[in-house]
């Protein structure tokens, strides 16, 4: 089983829709969680960290469920500019830090 | 403020040749990471350094790959000899204190 699993999509949604992505992780020792965004042929950029209590940044909401070992990203009122690949990132410590990226979920927002 | 700088941006080489990728991290950052990204395997961590010291190279695929960080402002990833299956985008990233990572623009490597 992969350490971090994501549905690669693509998710095709109309402008204005709400879309949610999930990401599951296998190692219960995972400590920190992030969502990165990667535009086509560009580098990944941090979108937001994911906190245990859940957190929101404008139209984006991230949540963590430790019991079920998944994190989620909710995008409300989708914009064309949200079209990108969203990468789930899990970090665990224990001696050395270990950062694992998911394969990413591709989102295409259509007019 | 300059971000992470990588060179070259594109590299096309023939199988068997040596390839050297270069990275200049953001000034003041103490962690440097090398990643490889392919369609099939996504983004894979190859190696990372803390204060110029290699900490975890378990992601380096084989002995053909080597990485160095001679000082805080420069790192190289070398592939010798290169093979077609090494074709990928190689990203360098840096961070301060191992949290938010800032990625460079990547080097797109094609080995024919």
Account of the 3D structure:
The complex is a heterodimer of chains A (111) and B (112). Chain A has strands at residues 4-6, 11-14, 19-25, 30-38, 44-50, 55-57, 60-65, 70-75, 84-92, 98-101, 105-110. Chain A is mainly β. In chain A, the strands form two sheets. In chain A, strands 2, 4, 5, 9, 10 and 11 form a six-stranded mixed sheet that branches. In chain A, strands 1-3-8-7-6 form a five-stranded antiparallel sheet, with no helix packed on it. In chain A, a hairpin with a 4-residue loop joins β7 (60-65) and β8. Chain A is globular, with a radius of gyration of 14 Å. The model of chain A has no long low-confidence stretch (mean pLDDT 92). The N and C termini of chain B lie far apart (36 Å). In chain B, the strands form two sheets. In chain B, strands 2, 4, 5, 6, 9, 10 and 11 form a seven-stranded mixed sheet that branches. A four-stranded antiparallel sheet of chain B has the order 1-3-8-7, with no helix packed on it. Chain B is globular. Chain B has no helices and eleven strands.
Number of helices, counting only DSSP H or I runs of 4 residues or more of chain B: 0
Q: What structural class do you assign from the helix and strand content of chain B?
A: mainly beta
One letter per element, helices H and strands E, the order of chain B comes to EEEEEEEEEEE
Uncertain parts of chain B: none
Helix fraction of chain B, binned, reads: under 10%
How far the N terminus sits from the C terminus of chain B, by CA atoms, comes to 36 Å
- The coarse overall form of chain A would be globular
- Rg of chain B: 13 Å
Task: Describe the sheet with the most strands of chain A.
Answer: 6 strands, mixed
Instruction: Give, in order, the helices and strands of chain A.
Output: EEEEEEEEEEE
What's the average pLDDT of chain B? Answer: 94
């Amino acid at each position: 089983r992969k350490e971090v699993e994501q549905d690669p999509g693509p998710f095709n949604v109309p402008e204005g829709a709400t879309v949610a992505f999930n990401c599951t992780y296998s190692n219960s020792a995972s400590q920190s969680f992030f969502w990165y965004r990667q535009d086509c042929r560009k580098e990944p950029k941090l979108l937001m960290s994911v906190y245990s209590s859940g957190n929101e940044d404008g139209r984006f909401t991230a949540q963590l469920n430790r019991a079920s070992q998944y994190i989620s990203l909710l995008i409300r009122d989708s914009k064309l500019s949200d079209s990108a690949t969203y990468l789930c990132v899990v970090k665990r410590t224990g001696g050395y830090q270990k950062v694992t990226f998911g394969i990413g979920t591709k989102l295409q927002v259509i007019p | 403020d300059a971000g992470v700088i990588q060179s070259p941006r594109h590299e096309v080489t023939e199988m068997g040749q040596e390839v050297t990728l270069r990275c200049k991290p953001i000034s003041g950052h103490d962690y440097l990471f090398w990643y490889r990204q392919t369609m099939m395997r996504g983004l894979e961590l190859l190696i990372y350094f803390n204060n110029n010291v290699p900490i975890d190279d378990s992601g380096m695929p084989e002995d053909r790959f080597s990485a160095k960080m001679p000082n805080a402002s420069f790192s190289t990833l070398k592939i010798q000899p290169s093979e077609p299956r090494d074709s990928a985008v190689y990203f360098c990233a840096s961070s301060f204190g191992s949290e938010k990572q800032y990625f460079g623009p990547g080097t797109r490597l094609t080995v024919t």
